[in-house]
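ok here's the first one, seq then struct tokens
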Amino acid sequence: MEILFKFLDTTGFAMMTFGNAIMIVIGIIFITLAITKDYEPLLLVPIGFGAIMGNIPTIESMALSVYDQGSVLSYIYFGISQGVFPPLIFLGIGAMTDFSTMLSNPKLILLGAAAQMGIFLTLIGALALGFTPAEAGAIGIIGGADGPTSIFLSAKLAPHLLGAIAIAAYSYMALVPVIQPPIMKLLTTKEERLIRMKPPREVSRREKMIFPIAAFLICALLVPGAIVLLGMLFFGNLLKESCVTERLANTARTAFIDIVTILLGLAVGASTQAQTFLQSESLLIFGLGALSFCIATASGLLFAKFMNLFLTDKINPLIGAAGVSAVPDSARVVQMVGQKEDPHNFLLMHAMAPNVAGVIGSAVAAGVLWSVMGN
């Protein structure tokens, strides 16, 4: 009986805390939303299951959690804590991305840049709430709606906030179809939502091959802090556009990025142990993240309206909302909202221009923040 009672004392049931139970429920909610609502299932299912794994209580002598040195999960979490996984994700994104629409209409790059306003306004808000400059920089990047970039920067500037920032960033990425449409309808008129844009011009193969090399050199020389993220993004794109490394490009955009996504999502979820995650600053981060995302969406929309004051060929302001880096979900939301007004108005290709520009913009912003706030 003594052995039995000792065993019962070591079970998760005996050591379960209220906080652990809350996080397990949150993990189940993530999985449910992914399955029933199709909200970023490739991210929310691993993160949700990871949150369940990370909140099963264990005895101190057993190295099992991401924070226990020598545990299996700690080795997987190394890819997050040291910023290894985000550049690998960017490699796969680059191999999947077509920059043709952006190259055919370069002025749409400005919409991707405008959407980064959410990052810097949130940084100011975080400073006002008492966060350190490094912490504020890591929190602000959530406004880019770019999970890998958020993880990469928080690992460099504020590792102790990494779990909360990663969960906030991926949560808002998954909720793009919920958060963005009300803002889009509030800030545009029906006439603006009905604007039809000219088809993009055809971009030559030479332009597509030159772009990743030229863009990387320009961005990296301006912001050396973005070398790793943008280097992997443009390298992946070069593999795709060169047409001589199709095997590598295909691997990068399929099996490779899928493996990294599984490991990243599981480790991020497992890092949300109630003892370290359920803090008052986590709630502030979630609130600031929501504000940041809304500001980023609104900034892209309003800047598109501003550009229309000077353009003969008008831009549909809806595509400004795609300036956040949630690729390709925010572009799909633009298409969905636009077709509710006019089923024959196809905005997806146009929206992809600010969408991919936003990916570049958020990586550049992360490099700037790392350079300024990390020193």
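and now the second one, same deal
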Amino acid sequence: MKDRNRNGFTLLELLVVIAIIVVLAGLLFPAVQSVLERAKKVQAKNDLTQIVTAVNAFYTEYGRYPIDSTITTDAAATFGGSTSSKTLFDELRGKTANLNTRQIVFISPPEDSSQSNPKGKIGTDGQFHDPWASTYWIRMDANYDNTVDNAYTDGSAGGDPSANYALRIGAIAWSLGKDGTLGSSGNNKFTGSDDVISWQ
């Protein structure tokens, strides 16, 4: 009898190929994660730029920032975290006519009415969430002295050191990044943090 030639793979060859694929996937995973994280930071920076532009456009249109006692009692006019930004974004999106009497749409971010904190969208809570599903923080010059207090306690995020790093700007916005804490490990310092800010 003649030996028949077999053209298939042996079990050992298949196991070697699978092992090589697993090793390559393991090597690629951190690189893919890094690219995705950078993409989220770029999206957050774009969102923050749009928010500050919308606030400044509101100021240009009405001669005031979209804040009053019905929106916040905070002298620094800070929104985000425990202070909901829903009313602010309702004004900027032209949903209400309390301050935006002509109901001009200054910003139109995507919405997801099925989630309370969607990534990169406005959720059912009416707040604008960053790519990590935390709310964006916004601070405006509520007393119109041409400065806004910097959210960070060091000079790494800019600002005038002689005035507690106050920024000579009308509005700022920031994202707490992937870790969800202000600064690096919650120390309120921008250096080494994964936060994204609008003013740099």
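notes on #2: The first strand starts at residue 78 and ends at 79. Residues 41 and 196 are 7 Å apart (CA to CA).
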